[in-house]
Design goal:
InterPro entries: DegV (IPR003797), DegV_C (IPR043168), DegV_domain_contain (IPR050270)
Strand content: 25-35%
Keywords: Lipid-binding
CATH topology of the largest domain: Hypothetical Protein Tm841, Chain: A,domain 3
Organism: Ornithinimicrobium cryptoxanthini
Protein name: DegV family protein
Length: 288
């Protein structure tokens, strides 16, 4: 394979899908007290949810160090025989992962050509893009072509999500303190989105039920706006809220055309640290 595709664990790609797609994954880290744990290796999403509910230990996140990327890039060359790598990562506006990847790419430039792509998204909006890039590479696309497929699919995607509390986002600096305070004071249940790579308010809704109904409506509108020729993939994410997520998944499968893929995918541990239990998110990713 001339071009390999690497993404990070915030893409939330289930291991079986990553293997099927030929996508390689580097884990981000969850910090618990003084421990640093690799997402999906040393700590699971359910364990993060339990820690956040208990509130007894300080839980945070950290990016991979540039040296970790260097090791992974070199390992990919050895394992796959690739001569180039598309390195696709979560939005640089909310993480330093892209910066670490760029530093590592510069360090190995005499060994392998690495194109670092800022997805400006996370979750399966990025996971589906990595899948498409790997498929393009397997079909003969060069480094520039596979990277462009990843960028195009990320740019075409929409992600909407609901959190029961903005407190975890506020603590991590992912939304302004004023927005979090207003949401709490006015008993608003916000519907959020990723726009320009950042968490932004999509709508203010008064109740949880109305927020979830609007979430489903927004996702249906986004999915059905895509031409039937291209098709669309949809992923429903959750943290500690499987029953609700299953209901939304079933509703979307029933409402969308049969050729639309709808996956139920647990939110990753790193993203879960910043959204908290009671999170429901939907990624709508038009095929390119």
């Amino acid at each position: 394979m001339p071009t390999a595709v690497l993404t990070d664990s915030t893409a939330c790609l289930p291991p079986e899908l990553a293997e099927q797609a030929g996508v390689h994954v580097i884990p981000l880290h969850v910090t618990v007290g003084r421990q640093t744990l690799s997402e999906g290796v040393d700590i699971s999403t359910s364990e993060v949810a339990e820690l956040l509910r208990a509130g007894k230990e300080k839980v945070g996140t950290s990016r991979p160090a540039p040296g970790e990327f260097v090791e992974v890039y070199r390992a990919l060359v050895q394992e796959t025989g690739c001569d180039s790598i598309v390195s696709l990562h979560l939005s640089a506006a909310i993480s330093g992962t892209v910066e670490a990847a760029q530093l590592a790419a510069a360090a190995v430039r005499d060994e392998v050509q690495v194109e670092v792509v800022d997805s400006r998204v996370l979750g399966m909006a990025m996971g589906y893009a990595a899948w498409s890039a790997a498929d393009a590479a397997a079909s003969g696309a060069d480094l520039a072509g596979a990277a462009e497929v990843a960028r195009a699919r990320c740019a075409a995607s929409a992600t909407y999500f609901y959190v029961d509390s903005l407190e975890h986002l506020r603590r991590g600096g992912r939304v302004g303190a004023v927005q979090a305070l207003l949401g709490s004071a006015l008993a608003i249940k916000p519907l959020l989105t990723l726009a320009e790579g950042e968490v932004q308010l999509e709508e203010r809704v008064r109740t949880r039920a109305k927020a979830l109904a609007r979430l489903e409506t927004k996702c249906l509108e986004a999915a059905t706006a895509v031409s039937s020729e291209r098709g669309v993939d949809v992923a429903v994410h959750h943290l500690g809220w499987r029953e609700q997520a299953e209901g939304v998944t079933d509703s979307l499968r029933e409402a969308l055309p049969a050729d639309c893929r709808v996956d139920l995918v647990e939110l990753g541990a790193v993203a879960g640290v910043h959204t908290g239990p009671g999170t429901l998110a939907v990624a709508v990713a038009p095929r390119v």
